[in-house]
Amino acid sequence: MLEKEIKVYSGLKMLIVNLIMLVLSVVIGIAGIKGVIEGGAFLNVAEIILGCVLLVVWCVHLGGFFTLQPNTAAVLILFGEYKGTVKKDGWHFTNPFYTKKKLSLRSRNLNGEKLKVNDEMGNPIEIAAVIVWRVENTAQSFFDVENYAEYVKIQSESALRHLAGLYPYDITDEAKHLSLRGSADEVSEALRLELQERLAKAGVVVEEARLSHLAYAPEIAAAMLQRQQASAIIAARQMIVEGAVGMVEMALEKLSQKGVVDLDEERKAAMVSNLMVVLCGERSTQPVINTGTLHN
Q: Nearest-CA neighbor of 178 among 191, 161, 197?
């Protein structure tokens, strides 16, 4: 369905016309009744009929008045045929036989429920999203889907389930550059684009889509926490070892350049071992003072 705007009249101007019509119907009716009582001429009977007709028309016209608040639209239908949409706020008048169906054009929040799905690696996770959307095409929202609000909710859940299966929860391979946890902006934009494609049929515009909840499922949460802790410990150890090797290398080079002491290969190996223990150990080492010679 293509949306089209229809022209309506000012409610204030038509109110004046209706008041004039009401006054005329009363005046003509009273004059006719008075004439019938006095003489009963045919013209007086016609005046009574005309007054009644004007009164009926006035009553029917009352159904043509309607008001619209800002960011609200009215879909006008005449005997099952779509005639147009009114989006201008204010007090309006239109054909009284039009059926007026009002729709809100304001932005709405859809706070989705937590869904239990599998990520790209097959791990069960819990995920939820917040969707900000609004109606853009009133004809599509009203005629192309049964219930556009329910349609948005169901399609949002479907899109979120599909998206969760395209990305891993976290980056476990250097070849993977995107993850649900580490690439929130990219994942949110991908969700918004997919939702926009799905909801275009309902005349809905998706303004924003964000993940509101993301976690491993309870049955594997503990195991995944241990895995993350192990990965963090390994990464920290690698950094410590790299730094310790650099410090030992620098110490040996300085001692050799300044000629402070001349160490053979065996003494160098012992020194390297001691320094590595001191630099890489989790606890502080206790110093031991050598009171003998270098080789004792």
A: 191
